[in-house]
Design brief:
heterodimer, A: mainly alpha, about 0% strand, elongated, B: about 210 residues, alpha/beta, Rossmann fold, 9 strands
Chain lengths: ~240, ~210
């Protein structure tokens, strides 16, 4: 047997109870690393988004006016579906293998850990959607100003989708048929995001400017940033009971 | 260190046990025994602060505890049925990740030393996916070693461990108690400890 080390004497002195910053960084780095190790899954989700967006021009009449009118809405709905597709992964795997238990029992703040996980979800599911939007938007004969408005709107809106989705994902943990229930819970909540996001392009076309739409999206993002991690963390604790 | 008064537990509508009372002091361990489904896991989850008791109270260092109490989270290492390992990460990364999550600042040398102690140092760079059940359990043992928390709450820690692994767990538990730690262990196998270190709670006797 090795030299005896008194357990209590060596316990690290600085209590980290409720620590926020290290918890956020830890969860973000860990989820990004795991996502990177299972790249295939990420690829599937990005491909899904690309294919859904591409199907519409192929299946409707090839009229410039019609496509330009459809485009923003289609990209937004596809972004929403792509986000939804990856949501079950947010907590379910950690719930199934017991990591979520350890997260809830960590001395760190659980909402901060949850925030880190949501940030990782947005970086892996939201950012590709935003980056590909200008490219995919060209299929709909959108001009430069429409494309930039659409992309900026998605940049503000996709984090809201991840944040709202996290609440749904946490609430449906451990339920049978959780995936379908998750969609039913989250989709109605995202309607305002969809309206203001897709509406921004129409506003620009009508010469109104997208300022009002972007302000509303940004306000929604701020509210979700504050509220969603707390709600999701509370739901996680309930799920573990 | 840890006291329970008149604890009752239920899962859904099924009442599992009532009137459970015990006290675990520093340097002592409590073995919880009982048939399958008698509520050992439920009791341990209550003590770890994951589940609220149906009745009764839990005190830690004299203070009454509610689920997820920060003082409890600071002091307890809970190891349940689920190993909390990520298949995508290596043994070393898993151990590092779990120790950081538990708020311990552990150097790489300490992590490697702990893996060496559980005879996994030659497997430390393998993804957890390819490890056997016993080897995954051993990562859990290494976690106990690096965290150095005063109270261990362990659910069937010896499951899937081989003879050497069980002996290693016994030695680590003895070391932990010697160092002033305490432990509550649900177990089917007898654990080899010096006399007077361990009390037994037969949860079947508390069935309603």
């Amino acid at each position: 047997m090795r030299a005896l080390t008194p357990a209590l004497a060596l316990e690290t002195a600085a209590p980290a109870t409720g620590a926020v910053a290290p918890a956020f960084v830890w969860a973000l780095a860990r989820d990004m690393r795991i996502a990177f190790r299972s790249r295939a899954e990420l690829g599937v989700q990005v491909l899904f988004y690309v294919i859904v967006v591409t199907l519409f021009p192929l299946s409707t009449a090839p009229e410039r006016g019609l496509l330009a009118a459809l485009g923003p809405g289609v990209l937004w709905v596809a972004a929403l579906l792509a986000s939804l597709l990856s949501l079950p992964r947010l907590f379910a795997a950690d719930f199934a293998d017991g990591t979520l238990e350890q997260m809830a029992l960590s001395p760190w703040s659980l909402p901060a850990i949850v925030s880190g996980k949501i940030a990782a979800h947005w970086l892996t599911s939201g950012v590709p959607v935003v980056v590909l939007a200008p490219l995919l938007g060209m299929q709909y004969a959108l001009d430069a100003s429409a494309l930039s408005t659409l992309t900026l709107g998605l940049l503000l809106g996709t984090p809201i989708l991840s944040l709202l989705g996290a609440i749904g994902a946490a609430l449906t943990l451990g339920l049978r048929g959780g995936g379908a229930l998750l969609a039913l819970l989250v989709l109605p909540l995202t309607v305002p995001v969809l309206i203001f996001g897709a509406g921004a392009v129409d506003a620009v076309r009508a010469g109104l400017g997208a300022g009002a739409n972007f302000s509303l999206l940004a306000a929604g993002l701020l509210i979700a940033l504050v509220g969603a991690p707390l709600a999701a963390a509370a739901a996680v604790r309930i799920a573990l009971d | 260190m840890l006291e329970a008064h008149d604890l009752a537990g239920a899962r859904g509508h099924a009442r599992l046990f009532h009137g459970v009372a015990f006290r675990v002091d520093a340097g002592r361990a409590l073995a919880v025994t009982g048939a399958n489904g008698s509520g050992k896991t439920t009791l341990l989850r209550m003590l770890a602060g994951l589940t609220a008791p149906a009745a009764g109270s839990i005190r830690f260092n004299g203070a009454p505890m509610s689920p997820f109490d920060p003082r409890l989270r600071e002091a307890v290492v809970f190891s349940g049925h689920l190993p909390a390992l990520k298949d995508e990460l290596t043994a070393l990364e898993n151990l590092e990740s779990l120790s950081t999550l538990a708020g311990a600042s552990v150097s790489r040398a300490q992590l490697v030393e702990a893996l060496d102690r559980v005879a996994l140092s030659r497997r430390q760079m393998l993804p957890a996916r390819v490890l056997s059940q016993g080897q995954r359990r051993r990562i859990g043992l290494a976690r106990l070693r690096v965290l150095r928390k005063p109270l261990w709450i362990l659910d069937e820690p010896a499951t899937a461990l081989d003879h050497d692994g069980t002996a290693l767990f016994g030695a680590m538990l003895a070391e932990h108690l010697e160092g002033g730690g305490a432990a509550v262990v649900a177990t089917h196998q007898p654990i080899d400890l010096p006399p007077g270190r361990m009390a037994t709670l037969a949860i079947d006797a508390c069935a309603p």
